[in-house]
Specification:
single chain; mainly beta; 2 domains; 5-stranded antiparallel beta sheet; 6 helices; disordered C terminus
Length: 389
């Protein structure tokens, strides 16, 4: 015999069910309203501090644990160390070679490698004691430096002789012959898997790709914009972002095909430094001629924000937790600290209180952006209201 639903036959139950449904819908509306309000009132990226350092700061790198930023002071022949917890310089400036330019820190955080543009050398700093422990001779006018993910090699661009030197970080000696690339090699970055180094050739308007297994250039140079300077690769390794100083744009390279994808992205005047957040959603570009930082949404490859910093912003580095960007202002002898707004699209994470307090906690509360923006947590009342979803 067919059993009739009690919802249809019992008026009291039906009324209670309707009230529950209306309450759930009201809760859902409240959640959406609060999310909307959070997005509407969310603050943009904001400069929260300006730190005096040495003369003409250029390169900057942050330790893997996010506790210190190392800044190369080109006209002071020194490196300043900033405590990112207090945003104050700690200790005396570290003496290095003439005109320090680029900085990179090993994955274990124990060594900082600094290119000395005027002395054709790289200074190696012990970050435990903040003292130089050796100097490595490389090519003419070294500029950029990047370290492989396993920490065994440092790749140095030699702007003056169109080559890249490779340093064995275990012995701090150059290994192999210099690698010929394009004219005026400047920036360098390593793919997350350590397999390739991407090098900007400033005078050639190209990017060279080096196979780090053989230390040879693979494929033809990749044409980008005029006078490319900085280069950074997304954490998933699929895209390389290149700043084109001469035409005030950013080119995006598909690292699977090593071809530029899409139109160049217009940014501020004379873009130079570039850094990408750890989750890969935002790219930060310093604009030397504008005194600004352009923020690119990597999903749309459009500028979503412009942040005013100091004069001639040069280098940029982002803390591992993605909450701060440190920008060297070459003409001000300062470093600007940008608090990164934890928003993506129309929904916020980090700066928003967290869905967990609204929906019952569990992984929703701790999940940040993923739990609010991602799959299905707001697709139905049940998953939004349940704990641990």
């Amino acid at each position: 015999m067919i059993q009739h639903s009690s919802f249809r036959t019992n008026p009291a139950f039906r009324g209670r069910a309707q009230r529950l449904l209306l309450g759930a819908l009201a809760t859902f509306a409240m959640i959406l309203g609060m999310v909307g309000a959070g997005a509407a009132t969310a603050t943009a990226d904001t400069v929260i501090g300006t730190i005096p350092v040495g003369n003409a700061p250029q390169g900057v790198a942050i330790t893997p644990d996010g506790t210190f930023a190392y800044v190369a002071n080109a006209q002071a022949d020194s490196v300043s160390v900033i405590d990112t917890g207090t945003n104050m310089v700690v200790g005396a400036p570290i003496p290095v070679g003439p005109s320090p330019f680029g900085v990179a820190i090993t994955p274990n955080g124990t060594r900082a490698y600094v290119t000395n543009n005027f002395s054709n050398s790289v200074s190696v700093i012990d970050t435990g004691t903040n003292t130089p422990i050796t100097t490595v001779t490389v090519g003419n006018s070294p500029a950029g430096v990047a370290i492989t993910p396993d920490g065994t090699r440092a790749y140095v661009t030699n702007f003056g002789d169109n080559t890249v030197s490779v340093i064995d970080t275990g012995t701090n000696m150059v290994v192999g012959a210099p690698i010929p690339v394009g004219n005026g090699p400047f920036g360098v970055t390593i793919s997350p898997d350590g397999a390739f180094a991407y090098v900007t050739n400033n005078f050639s308007g190209t990017v060279s790709v080096i196979d780090t297994g053989t230390d040879t250039v693979v494929g033809a140079p990749i044409p980008v914009g005029a006078f490319p300077n900085g280069v950074a690769i997304t954490p998933d390794g699929t895209r390389a972002y290149v700043t084109n100083f001469g035409d005030s744009t950013v080119s995006v390279i598909d690292t699977g095909t090593d071809m530029v994808v899409g139109a160049p992205i217009p940014v501020g005047t004379n873009p130079h430094g570039v850094a990408i957040t750890l989750e890969g959603k935002r790219t930060y570009v310093t604009n030397i001629g504008s005194g600004t930082v352009s923020v690119i949404d990597t999903g749309t490859n459009m500028v979503v924000e412009t942040v005013t910093v100091g004069n001639e912003p040069f280098g940029v580095a982002i803390t591992p937790d993605g909450t701060r960007a440190y920008v060297t202002n070459r003409d001000d002898d300062t470093v600007s600290v940008i608090a990164i707004d934890q928003c993506t699209g129309s929904l916020c994470f980090g700066s928003f209180a967290g869905a967990g307090s609204l929906t019952g906690g569990g992984s929703t509360g701790s999940g940040g952006a993923g739990s609010l923006i991602g799959a299905g947590s707001l697709a139905g009342i049940g998953s939004a209201a349940s704990s641990g979803s």
